[in-house]
Amino acid sequence: MKIREKIEHKEKLILIPQAAFSVETMGRNVKEKKDDIRTDYMIDRDRIIHSKSFRRLKHKTQVYIKMPGDHYRTRLTHTLEVNQIGKTIGKGIGLNEDLIEAIAMGHDIGHVAFAHSGEELLDKLLPQGFKHNENSVRVLTRIEKQGKGLNLTREVLDGILHHSGFTDKSKAFTLEGQVVRYSDKIAYVNHDIDDSIRAGLLNESDIPGIAIKVLGRTNSNRIDTLVKDCIYTTMENIKNGIKQVALSNEVFDALCVLRNFMFKKIYKGDILKAERDKAKFVLEQVFNYFFKHPDKMPEFYFNIVKEEGIYRGVADYISGMSDDYCLIMFHNIYVPKFVIC
After folding, report:
1. For the HD domain, which residue ranges apply (predicted)?
2. Which of 43, 170, 309, 319 holds its CA 20 to 30 A away from the CA of 69?
């Protein structure tokens, strides 16, 4: 028996019947020979982690743009926290941790430079709009490996596509994908509060009292409450024949209070408006330059322009840039160089 087959057999013994078993995957767009060691979801996780777009996450903003200090979250550290929270929830419920990890590692891979400010700008500029979850799937299927894509399983791509949003109108068809969706919210709401307090933009006394009462006073208390509630509520749903990851009403409402507070105070608030506007200005000028001069882009993206149109090609190039690279590009294009006459 191959090691992979032993792992697949172990899944049958440990995971709940509603979990996504590796041996039952819906498969890839291009069929491949099975690996001797790794299951399909393990392979997907490895492919994402070893991709160029994953490495760029370390220089993409989470909330704060170019903050001094080593302790503020980046898009990469956010991804790692989502993975950790998701795997804890998955283990508690009895789900496939390898699938959760693959989805978590790839869920934000399509984010633009300068966080949601960049996403808002591209959404405004592009006739077809722009959503980072849809772009994550495009990066993994169309952009990576010079257009070949990573050939990931349907379960992973579906979980990545449906990780965004705060309602149940559109959700992943696997419980593992639904776990990542909740893990993403649990992670960013709490670590963004932590970073905001560190930056001196929030005080602990600013946090809504109802959220503290239900979830806890500290960052770790709140995450602990949310993770445990997600496990127990989901297990109760499954017991009652409902295949859905969820929080209890009280805890979900408290999380919504925290999220709405952060949107009003930080994400959309006046505190960071000047920096958000600067970031949008830089990104828009870089976009406009390559829109007018697509031949200045790397050949791969210029070919996309010829095949799929100018908006698609420029959006693919711009959305792949890290914050640092976008700033360097802006500087090279628009800032005069010193010339000795």
Report:
1. 75-189
2. 319
